[in-house]
TrEMBL record:
This is Flavin reductase like domain-containing protein. GO terms for molecular function: FMN binding. Pfam families: Flavin_Reduct. Residues 56-79 are annotated as: Disordered. Residues 96-246 form the Flavin reductase like domain. It comes from Cladocopium goreaui. InterPro entries: Flavin_Rdtase-like_dom, Flavoredoxin-like, Split_barrel_FMN-bd.
Length: 279
C-alpha cells in the first residue's frame, strides 16, 4: 500500500487512515512483518513508538493483553534489547523447559529474600504451575503469607551466583544486598522502576531481579501439601498474573535465546547446570 506524498502536516493527517491500515496489515501478517523490505519501516515504527511512549505519562499507557511492549530504552528495531509482555495464553511457555529460577519474595515485615528454585511444573497453557519449596527455606514463610512472588529466569553467566544464593540462608544473610551487584540490581516485574517498600497499599509486595531475562508474577492458589503426602516440602499450585521477557529471548511464541545471546539454565542435580539452546 503506497501513501501519497504530503506537503504539510494537514496532508499527513489525511493519510492517518491509510497508515493505520498498513500497520494493521503488518501486525496481522507475520511473514510480511519479518520480510527484508519491511525492516526499515520496522525501525521507523519503533522510533515512533518510543517517541509516543516518552510523551505519555506511565499511568496513561495501556496494559492490555499484548505480546510486545516497546519501552523508551528499546532502540533496537530487531527487538534484541526490548521488553515483551507475554500473552496469558503463552505464560506457560516460559516454563516448558523447566528453567532454573530465582524466587524473589518478602516476609510479613517486607524484608526481601532470594532463593534458587528449579522444582517447577506447568499444569496448563494459561500459566498455572506446581512448585515445591523446602519447608526449611527462609522464603517459604513469605510466600505463604503474601501469596505472591516472582520467578526470575537468569542467564547462564549467573550460574555461580545461583549456587551462592542457594548456599546461604536469608535468615542470617541479607541476600538482596549481598548479591545486588552480580544480579544487576532490582526492579519491578517488567524492568520498571522500583520503590521499596511499596508506596501504595494496593501495590503488590513484589520485586524482580533486573539482571534476569524473564519475570513471572505468581499468585498462590492452593497449598496441596497434605494431599501430596510430603513432609519436608510445601507443594503449591500457583497461577501466573503477568509475565515479561527480554525480546532477545522471545519470538512471540518460543522462549529461547536468539543468535549470540546468553542461554538460560536447566539443572541436572549435584550443583551441575545445563543450558537451553534451540536445535
Amino acid at each position: 500500500m503506497a501513501l501519497e506524498p504530503s506537503a504539510d502536516a494537514s496532508d499527513l493527517l489525511c493519510n492517518l487512515a491509510a497508515c493505520e491500515q498498513l500497520l494493521t496489515d503488518l501486525l496481522n501478517d507475520e511473514k510480511l512483518f519479518r520480510s527484508d523490505p519491511v525492516k526499515q519501516l520496522r525501525g521507523l515504527v519503533t522510533q515512533l513508538a518510543v517517541k509516543l511512549w516518552k510523551g505519555k505519562p506511565q499511568s496513561e499507557v495501556p496494559h492490555g493483553d499484548r505480546t510486545r511492549q516497546t519501552r523508551p530504552n528499546c532502540s533496537d528495531p530487531e527487538g534484541t534489547e526490548g521488553i515483551c509482555e507475554v500473552k496469558a495464553a503463552q505464560f506457560s511457555r516460559l516454563l516448558y523447559t523447566n528453567p532454573v529460577c530465582i524466587l524473589s519474595s518478602c516476609n510479613e515485615r517486607l524484608q526481601r529474600n532470594l532463593m534458587t528454585i528449579s522444582w517447577l511444573t506447568p499444569l496448563d497453557n494459561q500459566g498455572r504451575l506446581m512448585c515445591s519449596i523446602n519447608k526449611r527455606r527462609h522464603s517459604a514463610a513469605g510466600v505463604l503469607h503474601h501469596k505472591t512472588f516472582v520467578l526470575n529466569v537468569p542467564p547462564a553467566n549467573l550460574a555461580e551466583t545461583l549456587l551462592a544464593i542457594g548456599a546461604c540462608s536469608g535468615e542470617s544473610v541479607d541476600k538482596v544486598k549481598r548479591f545486588s551487584a552480580p544480579l544487576g540490581g532490582y526492579c519491578r516485574p517488567g524492568w520498571k522502576s522500583l520503590t521499596w517498600p511499596p508506596e501504595q497499599p494496593e501495590d503488590l509486595p513484589i520485586f524482580a531481579v533486573a539482571g534476569c531475562i524473564a519475570h513471572l508474577v505468581l499468585q498462590l492458589e492452593a497449598d496441596v501439601t497434605a494431599a501430596s503426602g510430603q513432609d519436608a516440602h510445601h507443594v503449591l499450585v500457583c497461577k501466573t498474573l503477568a509475565a515479561y521477557v527480554r525480546c532477545s529471548h522471545w519470538d512471540g511464541k518460543i522462549f529461547c535465546p536468539k543468535d549470540r545471546q546468553q542461554p538460560y539454565l536447566t539443572f541436572f542435580g549435584s550443583q551441575t547446570f545445563g543450558v537451553v539452546l534451540p536445535k
